[in-house]
Amino acid sequence: FHLRMMEATVFLDTFNACRHFLVSFTRSVPRLNPVSELYGQLFRLHGLVFPLTSELPEMHQMMRQTCRDYADRELGPIAGKLDKEHLFPAQQVRELGAMGVMAVEVPEALGGAGMDYLAYSLAVEEISRGCGSTGCVVSVNNSLYIGPILKFGTQKQKEQWITPFTTGEKVGCFALSEPGNGSDAGAASTLARQEGEEWVLNGTKAWITNSWDASATVIFATTDKSLKHKGISAFLVPMPHPGLSLGKKEDKLGIRATSTANLILEDCRIPLGNMLGSRGSGFKIAMQTLDSGRIGIASQALGIAQAALDCAADYAHKRTAFGAPIGKLQAVQFKLADMAVAVESARLLTWKAAMLKDAKKPFTKEAAMAKLAASEAATFCGHQSIQVLGGMGYVTDMPAERHYRDARITEIYEGTSEIQRLVIAGQLLKEYAS
Amino acid sequence: MSRVLVGVKRVIDYAVKIRVKPDHSGVVTDGVKHSMNPFCEIAVEEAVKLKEKKFIKEVVAVSCGPTQVTETIRTALAMGCDRGIHVEVSGKDYEAMGPLQIAKIFAALAKKEEASLVILGKQAIDDDCNQTGQMTAALLDWPQGTFASEVTIDGEKVKVVREIDGGLETIKISMPAVLTADLRLNTPRYATLPNIMKAKKKKIANMKPADLGVDMVSRVEVLRVDEPPTRLAGVKVETVDDLVAKLKANGTI
């Protein structure tokens, strides 16, 4: 047993510094609860007792329906055009803002919908089913931009930086990754130095979603290089702003209606009051934000996976070959079954993570599992959907190829599938440590 | 000021493929997706709009049927209605329920609630009767503005532009009145998330037809329900003369 502990320690040591920090930082997981008791606990704590296999609570069903109606009628018909012409869905984002979808978890007093994270997950899934790019915009605004401000901001910061971003008129973005570090978030080289009553930021951030359409960003910079990842702080920067410029829009494989670009900071000056949270807490803020953000991305991946499955299943009914609809062929049936299982199991993982978060229980492991399962389900369903459609799947006449392209990013951003595995293993091993 | 009653019907969703029951007594409704009748959505939207323009004070959503119809009432509340009334009808009574029974219920409620307007969808997409609005108006002896594509309140009167076969007809009727909504009256709003949350707290009153003095006995008996016959293949002809000859041969002309 001692040897196993040593192996585990060695395994942990080979983690990226940020993962080790995350494992030690998050609240310890309850020891070896029987699975059924944990389920019972979390459903009771979610405020409602409902069997997981049965229906969602009425309010959640209603909001899921309204998002689905919107996605079917307003997003589905234009998604192909948005993708082809790389168009940001500004009008749709405004309409979604009016519905409360751009700020689901934000309290009503600040202009949000005042709902829970499960509702948010359902909303993102339904929106993404209509258009993967729009789902991404919704997720980034809710989880990555509003999320940290809601959790770590002062009341004044919340009013200034959240309320205008609830209506869909403005969206925000989240700037953590740099050209030199993505997964290696602790190695941030963007610097922030204090000069009088101002912070001065210098550096470059890469792969920033919503960059060209955002009116503000939550950005991470090193305030104390000697403290390594404990020397990173979070800042709020309005966009546009002197000293902040945008790189060229990346030409992406998928989610092409969103803008992705570098953020370049050259002596970008912001008031001292624009620091989010305390000095040195930036890394913690980033990791906790990404934890929740994972549920959002998992939901986006679910929406894309479901859309791919819908496309394939519908085609299987209509396309005939060998004298019958291809849905009669076992080869096609097996694919559809595998796709359905992948989506449904990822969905349940996602719901569980959201419900744990709503119950204020630790959810790091479950969120990582949800993101991993959902993103792999999305790429799997995207791939198999094209296969079911055959030649038709390869052309832009059918949405299968767009789902395939949109799905791919979900395994990469907000923590690659590899990082998710490290997070899950870290949490898991911790549970088994004596 | 004034109160509006809006009728909302829970019907099989428009996107569902309808299947006839094996015993031909009706269509399969178990486990099938249901939603608010699209014309009822338009009616709710119009009522909520009138309230927003401050012509009326209160919008009451009414539905008749078993417990499940409360979902439909809640959707109406989430769109902006102030409160709901669920008239409980279940079992055989529900299966036999038709425009006459609904009209009687609405007439009784309109009097009880002292409504200035009753707004209904022009027809339901399941039975396509297009009778309830007209019957309600007749029972109340109120004027009716049916197939409305535009509604304007002008003091104690309502100007209604109606979509009729020949085009558009504009009429002016005095309140209280019954209106039925046609497709182009408005575009129903999506229920917003904050409104869905607010709808949780709005009241839905519960009552039975007997409480309103309405007898639910139906004068109509459904004998049999069948699917439309499968469309047969057609025949192609080369010339107009051939067409005429064929039509003459099978007795059509």
TrEMBL record, chain A:
Sequence ranges assigned to domain Acyl-CoA dehydrogenase/oxidase N-terminal in this UniProt record: 58-169
EC number of the protein: 1.3.8.1
CDD domains assigned: SCAD_SBCAD
Pathway the protein acts in: Lipid metabolism; mitochondrial fatty acid beta-oxidation
Major enzyme class: oxidoreductase
Gene Ontology BP annotations: butyrate catabolic process; fatty acid beta-oxidation using acyl-CoA dehydrogenase
Keyword field: FAD, Flavoprotein, Oxidoreductase, Transit peptide
Signal peptide feature range: none
Entries under InterPro entries matching the protein: Acyl-CoA_DH_CS, Acyl-CoA_Oxase/DH_mid-dom, Acyl-CoA_Oxase/DH_mid-dom_sf, AcylCo_DH-like_C, AcylCo_DH/oxidase_C, AcylCoA_DH/ox_N, AcylCoA_DH/ox_N_sf, AcylCoA_DH/oxidase_NM_dom_sf
Residues covered by the Acyl-CoA oxidase/dehydrogenase middle domain: 173-268
Family: Belongs to the acyl-CoA dehydrogenase family.
Protein name as annotated: Short-chain specific acyl-CoA dehydrogenase, mitochondrial
Taxon lineage: Eukaryota, Metazoa, Chordata, Craniata, Vertebrata
UniProtKB/TrEMBL annotation, chain B:
InterPro entries: ET-Flavoprotein_bsu_CS (IPR000049), ETF_a/b_N (IPR014730), ETF_b (IPR012255), ETF_beta_N (IPR033948), Rossmann-like_a/b/a_fold (IPR014729)
Compartment list: Mitochondrion matrix
Electron transfer flavoprotein alpha/beta-subunit N-terminal domain mapped to chain residues: 24-216
GO BP terms, alphabetized: amino acid catabolic process; fatty acid beta-oxidation using acyl-CoA dehydrogenase
Main localization of the protein described in the UniProt heading: mitochondrion
Recorded family membership: Belongs to the ETF beta-subunit/FixA family.
Subunit text: Heterodimer composed of ETFA and ETFB. Identified in a complex that contains ETFA, ETFB and ETFRF1. Interacts with ACADM. Heterodimer of an alpha and a beta subunit.
Function: Heterodimeric electron transfer flavoprotein that accepts electrons from several mitochondrial dehydrogenases, including acyl-CoA dehydrogenases, glutaryl-CoA and sarcosine dehydrogenase. It transfers the electrons to the main mitochondrial respiratory chain via ETF-ubiquinone oxidoreductase. Required for normal mitochondrial fatty acid oxidation and normal amino acid metabolism. ETFB binds an AMP molecule that probably has a purely structural role. The electron transfer flavoprotein serves as a specific electron acceptor for several dehydrogenases, including five acyl-CoA dehydrogenases, glutaryl-CoA and sarcosine dehydrogenase. It transfers the electrons to the main mitochondrial respiratory chain via ETF-ubiquinone oxidoreductase (ETF dehydrogenase).
Protein known as: Electron transfer flavoprotein subunit beta
